[in-house]
Structures are given as C-alpha cells and as structure tokens.
Amino acid sequence: MHIAIAGNIGSGKTTLTGLLAKHFGWAPHYEDVDTNPYLNSFYEDMQRWSFNLQIYFLNSRFRQVVDIRNSGKTVIQDRTIYEDAYIFAPNLHTMNLMSTRDYENYRSLFDLMSTFILPPDLLIYLRASVPTLVNQIQKRGRDYENAIRLDYLKNLNEMYEEWIEGYKFGKLLIIDADNLKVSENPEDLGQVIDNINAQLHGLF
Fold it and tell me: Any idea which residues carry the catalytic annotation?
C-alpha cells in the first residue's frame, strides 16, 4: 500500500511521515532535500534554476514511486510527484520564474511519466496558513530557506487548494495543520491515526 503526505513547504509533512511510519510500521520515503544539488542555487536565483530543480525533483520522485510499487511494502511518502507538476512548476511559470518553453518541456515529460505510475492509495493533505508555514520554516532553520518569499508561499497555498479541490486520483484525507502539534501532543497524533484508519479500513 502507498500512503502519501502532501502539503506546502513547512506544513509538517516530514514530521508526520516519521511518526506515522513508526506507529504503523510503514517504510518512510522522504523528500530528497539534503542531497539535492539545486536547492541552494534555486532559492538564491529562482529564475535561473527553476527548470533544473523541477527536473531533478521529477526524476527523484519518479524513481521513488517505482521503488515503492516494487518494494512489496506499505510505504508512506513525504510529498508526491503530482505536487511538482500541478503546483510547484505551474506556480514558477505563473510567477515568470520559469519560461513557457521550459514549462511546456517539463509538463510534456511529466505527462509521459505519469502514464507509467499509479497514484497513492491514500493522500493526506496538510492544510496550513502562511503564518504557520513561516513559523515552521523559521523553527527548522535551513539556511537556504531564509530567502523564501511570502508571495511564493501564498501562491503555492492557493494552487494547493485548487489541486485538492479537484483531486480525483483516490482516497483523500484533509488535515488542518494550523493547530496540529503531532510531535508534542499525543492526542493530536491519535486523532490523525484514527482518521487514517477510518479511510483505509472503515474503522471509527
């Protein structure tokens, strides 16, 4: 089984992925940020490096999805391949940070790749306001994220909402992340676990 967590930068995907993997005994697949050779450059000059970054993520997540399906395990994934294609890349294009030529090239490649993959059995969407995202980003203190623009986060949030509203690939669980303290409050984590069980097994 393939469970995936979607959400904007700083919404709490990685933390929740780890906690759910530990609770359910699922294999976690994390987003490739520590070894990503483009992230630093991208946040310093988004226009120059946007296409390179999105191609890197597309390749990385495609490999992840293939590995997940071939593993025979129940896997929980931190961010999906769909978020790059439906949110991050079009947002960069809309903000004139990726050229139309590069964007169309990227989408053509994604459209081809998407014919070879299956969507997650359950998508968990962490909905968070921009103040929550900023607070979380500052708290984790990644140097390259200091340059993230507020309008960039706001635009991403709007595109996430639009994507989720039309999401038809499979089961969907939406969680309000503004008041969620899963690492500090066992009751919050327990509520999320109950909601996941209800989605996967019909248990209440």
Answer: 78
